[in-house]
Amino acid sequence: MPRTLPLSRRRLFSVLSAHSELAVILGGPFSGKTTLVDTWLATDPCPEWAPVVIPEPAHDVTPETYWATVASSLCTSLGVDEPVAAEGSFDSLCSILVRHPRPVMFVLDGVRSVEAIEDRVGQLLRLGPQVRMVVTSRAAGSWAELVDGHPHRTIVGDDLAFTVDETAALCRLFGLARDQRTIEWITRRTEGFAAFVAAVCATLRAEKPDRVYGTDALDVLVDSTVDLVVMHVVAADPSLALSSRSVLVSAAPNTVTESSISALPHIDDSDAFLTALTESGLIEACSTDGDSTDGETAWRYPEVVHRSLLRVGSAEYPKELWDARSALIDYWLQRSRPDIALEHAVERRDWRCAIDIVEKNWVALYGSGSLRSLGIVLLELLPDDMTTNDRTVASLRTITRARNKAGEPEQWAFPRSFETILRLGSLRMQGAYDEAMEVCDGLATEPVPNFETLDDTTRHAHGLKYLNFGTVYLLGGRTTDAGTMLRRAHTAGRGVFVEREAAGKLALLEALRGRTHEATRWIEEELRHPPIMGEAEALIRTAGLVATALVALDRLDTGTAFRALSELGTPRHTEELWAAVMYARGRLALLSGVPADGLLYIDSELQHFSHRLTGISAVLVDAARADLYLALGEARAARELVDSSTHPLTAPARARLRLLGGDPGGAEVIVHRGDAAREHCPAVGAELALIGSVASLRLGRRTDARRHLQRAVVLAEHAGVTRPFVGVPPSAVRDILSLGVDLPIDLDPAMAEYGIFREIRVVVRLTPRERAVLDALLAGGTASTIAKEQFVTLNTVKTQLRSLYRKLGVHSREEAIAQAHRLVVG
């Protein structure tokens, strides 16, 4: 780990600099206290002060030795001779400060083992304003008594975690180029502990700096690096080095008290061991919340350290160093902690072991509420080859018998609901969304419970149920019902993967509607959750990444969209949201000016998903392909895809097809249908309104055109989108700008970069009589004058005019004249 980390802790520098008397930095051995101070000192924050930096002393240092070291360092900094040892070292230090009143800044690192350090620092501060102290410690001690009530003193402790930006800065320092999601992933998985983040960066640089890590590979790298740092700290502490096995065992319950320590095996002196843990900084004080008996102080390992110790205890480390595996398993399974054993079985993706644990401990897990998400997550994450075999069915039956024997109330029958979920999953994979929605309709009428009154297990079970219902409705195209169910899932699934997956799908739902502000809120909520273990991450992350891409595209940010879709990669053949991926890729291809490539990609992938081209999937794929065909000038192919559709998401393609094909009247009909407004799709409404404005201009109705354009602006600003304004032909730009409406986009450069739709020169075949009537109209004739000039009756001319209007796609003489100038008439 480098001694100084430029830029990585800049947000805390002002805190240290602003408090001129005393700054106490509290944190465990992984928090980066020393690094923070070193980095701050490297900026020369107080050039007029003489710095006296004292490194962390030995574990068994005596007060006399420590203060003698401080006095010696002070003399070196001031350039004076050391006094003859006629008094105690601390008194000598005070004498030097009195005789040489130059401003001095003491930096005392790692003072937890120095006896009465708080009292001594208080005495030094009372010598006068020429003394300033910066102290780092793993123990809170009585520092608060020195700080409380003093405006120029502070304690820094809760803000030491690295932010995402600081992790990114550290990656750059190590010469690593990492995408935003990987940086966020590292920050979350290490909980921002500086020592862990720096160690991960060093490991990444030592391996292959340019390697792109998948979910599993990055998890393994981060976890193994954290394990090495944790083991190093334990081994380096003399009080813990010989008790490593006890450290591992003590991590099983996480909440540590005197009684829990004394009850653990292989611990002879529980008081000494607990003291060693607290002084090492490995554990931190926490709220008891019923975890300890009355009168006991409760301590807890930071969660990242807790997980590391559990991994170390269960892994195949050398026997002579970490001989704890059997003891931990015995503790987990025989001391009422099967949830920990289950967690690690799932982490290792040892599905057989996980099923065994659930079978043998279902009553304890369910009855105690300690199962939390793991039992539900287990059955959600089971690989495809384990969801239909006899072993899994037998396991579910065993669980059913166990619950019946336990006399559990049937608030939510776990196996029966799981059977329903399996059935819904099977129907979804077949593309039978209508049948799946019928199943959901039959169950969704049940009363919605008050989630706050349910235990965690029951609440999470409801969350999983509503998540599946919401997914079915989303895939089936019933967006309103999907939103309702997914919001319930998000509430009920709080604390487990359901909460994150529901947020991602709500983000996708809002992004498809073009409601970018709401979509962004749900994207941020989805990103708040850490990645989950194993292959399930690849399934859960799809919705959030596609939503990110769609929101970026609606804002003409092709770079962000490209990065999100690149991170997502090609959808697996089991991916349910594959059509949303195709839809986003189609839009990106349009804005990037490569419609042929986009169409080729979608067509090549369709062969894998053709059996599921129903519901919303069919709508999304048809809408994407139709616009790609239009960008290539292939109106007939686009018409075959969307001409008979009535879905709001295909409405822009249908209206654009008619506009580009020379049928502005037909485009206006689609614009006026109000599909987008009915489904609350403001971005779609904005795109339709803009097409309507161009259509009205083509028909010579400027007042209507201005009204349409004003509506497009209002809807676009409401939705936070600009993409709709580049969905019309470049030839319409001048006419749009002539309407005098303020647009939320500089249209000329935007169309130059992103405009891809061109007029499709449609050939209209007219009979000689129809052509003669059209020529007469262009010359200024009316029905009466044409009848006289051609020696036919007025009714004959009217019949020919109706036929002419139908072929031109217009409804009046003025529209026919305007349309004739844009078409190739033969």
Helix-strand blueprint:
Blueprint: H1 10-18, E1 22-26, H2 33-42, E2 50-54, H3 63-78, H4 89-99, E3 104-108, H5 117-125, E4 131-137, H6 143-147, E5 153-156, H7 164-173, H8 180-190, H9 194-206, H10 215-236, H11 238-241, H12 244-250, E6 255-256, H13 258-262, H14 270-280, E7 284-285, E8 299-300, H15 303-314, H16 325-334, H17 338-347, H18 351-368, H19 374-381, H20 390-406, H21 414-430, H22 433-444, H23 456-476, H24 479-492, H25 497-513, H26 516-527, H27 536-554, H28 558-568, H29 578-591, H30 595-609, H31 615-631, H32 635-642, H33 651-660, H34 664-672, H35 675-678, H36 682-698, H37 702-719, H38 733-737, H39 747-754, E9 763-764, H40 768-778, H41 783-790, H42 794-808, H43 813-820, E10 824-825
Parallel strand pairs: 1-4, 1-5, 2-3, 3-4, 9-10
Antiparallel strand pairs: 6-8, 7-8
Helix pairs in contact: 3-4, 7-8, 9-10, 10-15, 12-15, 15-16, 16-17, 17-18, 18-20, 21-22, 21-23, 22-23, 23-24, 23-25, 24-25, 25-26, 25-27, 26-27, 27-28, 27-29, 28-29, 29-30, 29-31, 30-31, 31-32, 31-33, 32-33, 33-34, 33-36, 34-36, 36-37, 40-42, 41-42
If you had to describe this structure to a student in words, what would you say it looks like?
The structure is a single chain. It is built from 43 helices and 10 strands. Strands 2-3-4-1-5 form a 5-stranded parallel sheet, sandwiched between helices. A 3-stranded antiparallel sheet has the order 6-8-7. Mean pLDDT is 77; it is low at 1-6, 315-337, 362-381 and 387-416. With 826 residues, it is mainly alpha-helical. The longest helix has 22 residues, at 215-236. The radius of gyration is 35 Å and the shape is elongated. Helix 27 (536-554) packs parallel to helix 29 and helix 40 packs across helix 42. Strand 3 (104-108), helix 5 (117-125) and strand 4 (131-137) form a beta-alpha-beta unit. 62% of the residues lie in helices and 4% in strands.
